[in-house]
Design a protein that fits this description.
Blueprint lengths: L3 H15 L4 E3 L10 E13 L5 E12 L4 H15 L3 E5 L2 E8 L4 E5 L5 E11 L1
Parallel strand pairs: 1-2
Antiparallel strand pairs: 2-3, 3-7, 4-5, 5-7, 6-7
Length: 128
């Protein structure tokens, strides 16, 4: 059985450990902080076979809040994109994230109420 809490926590901690983001949350961004991101699961599809073994394709997004300096904010978004696009073989309890693929490049979302830049990237991961 897929443990979606473990999946989102694993991705969140992987991004937090391997980027210069101050903190990575799930599923929402706190309003008062900058140089942060959140990981949110969007949906998924189980893939069953005759042996009863399942793989899962799960979509998720990473929403990044930089600062009011767009150059720095884009650099954070690129850092997350480059880390996760083609990431593979990430342990996940009794499962493994086989591969993560970006389905979008970083997309400028807009500015928050404090004029900080927001970027969104959508990914798909295969869990086996």
């Amino acid at each position: 059985m897929l443990d979606t809490e473990l999946l989102m926590t694993t991705i969140r901690l992987y991004v937090e450990k391997n980027t210069t983001l101050d903190k990575v949350y799930s599923p929402d961004l706190p309003q008062e902080k900058t140089n942060i991101a959140c990981v949110t699961m969007l949906g998924g599809t189980p893939k069953n076979n005759l042996c009863g073994i399942s793989d899962y394709d799960v979509s998720f997004r990473v929403l990044i809040r930089g600062t009011n300096n767009d150059t720095n904010s884009r650099a954070l978004a690129d850092e997350v994109f480059n880390l996760l696009h083609f990431a593979r073989d990430i342990e996940l309890g009794e499962h493994k994230i086989v591969q993560i693929l970006a389905t979008t490049t970083p997309i400028y979302v807009g500015k928050d109420e404090n004029q900080n830049n927001l970027y969104n990237i959508t990914f798909n991961c295969n869990v086996s």
